[in-house]
Specification:
6-stranded mixed β-sheet, 46% helix, globular
């Protein structure tokens, strides 16, 4: 067998090292981007990446221009006659969504929802590329809605974010007193798969590029005209926007 001269191998090895370094660097950058709340997401049902190069969802942003959000048939928390509404596009496996749930949401609930000034709604936006359990968690919340326990399941999922396997979701349903057969059939059949895909598609059309994405505005019937605030922003950011609408 003829040996390849060493002087011919060296340039090839150098090129391979350069390519490998580039790929490793790109991978490291992407991992860091996601860990900081990066917002590159796949278009619903297509697997194509959208939103590349946008601001991380965890970073506070100025409210966007108002858009109309349909909230027909979505569960509402609070006074149904409140003129101000918040619509959150969420991912139950997203750490920044959990931060919003733990930090700002309790204060929003105490000061505005429980006092009848604001109604709160949730739509789904699972980032399934980096959060593989988010899709079924979203389905679980919708299946719980069928038995009037959406908000109880919503809270349970965020309070147990590290345990969102199928068996965990079914266990939570039992803990909430749901009919096990009905819930399990709903979850196993993927009853709400299309509904969640529609939420994702609608969200992308509204400018959602990551989670959490909260739209705050006025509500008229089943339409909220609101501006988007991206990320797990502090309560004071919500307060300033809400007070400006009351």
């Amino acid at each position: 067998m003829q040996n390849v001269p060493t002087n011919r191998l060296i340039p090839v090895l150098v090129i391979l090292l350069i390519v490998a370094s580039f790929l490793l660097g790109s991978l490291y950058t992407k991992v860091q981007y996601y860990e900081k709340g990066g917002t590159a997401v796949a278009a619903a049902g297509t697997g194509n990446v959208a939103g590349t190069g946008t601001q991380p969802a965890a970073e506070p942003e100025e409210p966007s221009a108002p858009v109309n959000i349909d909230v027909t048939d979505y569960p509402r928390l609070g006074n149904k006659n409140a003129k101000v509404a918040i619509v959150e596009f969420t991912d139950y496996q997203c750490p920044f969504c959990e931060r919003l749930f733990s930090d700002a949401f309790p204060k929003i609930k105490k000061e505005y929802i429980d006092t009848g000034k604001v109604q709160y709604m949730v739509r789904d936006f699972p980032l399934f590329q980096i959060h593989p359990q988010a899709q079924k968690a979203a389905e679980a919340a919708n299946c719980a809605k069928d038995q009037n326990k959406f908000w109880e399941m919503h809270d349970k999922l965020f309070s147990n974010q590290s345990a969102l396997q199928i068996e965990d979701l079914k266990k939570y349903a039992g803990e909430l007193g749901l009919n096990a057969g009905t819930f399990n059939s709903c979850l196993d059949s993927g009853k709400y798969t299309d509904k969640i895909k529609k939420d994702q598609t609608d969200g992308e059309g509204l400018g959602v590029r990551g989670t959490p994405a909260s739209f705050i505005g006025t509500i008229n019937g089943n339409t909220v005209n609101g501006s988007q605030i991206s990320g797990a922003v502090p309560f004071e950011t919500f307060k300033a926007t809400i007070d400006g609408l009351l």
